[in-house]
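Our working data are protein records whose layout never changes between entries. The record below serves as our worked example for the rest of this section:
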Amino acid sequence: MGNIESKILKSKKGKEVLIRRARAGDSKNIININVSVIAEELYMMREQDEASYNEESFGKEIENYLHSPNHVYIVAETAKKVVGYIEFRNGYFRRTSHSGMFSMFVLKDYREEGIGNMLLDAMTGWAEKNPSIEKITLAVFSTNDRAQALYKKSGFVEEGRCPKDMKLRDGSYIDSVLMYKFV
């Protein structure tokens, strides 16, 4: 199992960013990030009225991840504030246990600072050291060009598209882009 060593990095704007494994006490901050990103109505599967989070159960999930060799939550913290996170979970069945999917979110005011790249590098490094993980996958909105560019820069390849995968309130559709990287 790979380990996450806490490290302090510098953002593109010169801020110190602590990259570390999430703790159960981070649940409120992670929930706040989700709520903030949902409010943007751009890149989350859920809409605002569908989002309900329970801090206690979220904390238990993070705690369970601390004891799982193939699941991880990693957070980015600056000025003692959690501003982003990445979450990875592998398949639960033997046939899919070598592969897993991640999600990553960074608060709007902290984007374009390299924080997403820091989180992605930490998660990828963890996966590379994990003998169980061979493939990292993700799904991203086809309209999220910034995220797709980051993933491609990090060695991810488009695996396919799910046409009209998301239907918006106005009746328009967005495709999902499936991407992967072998580690």
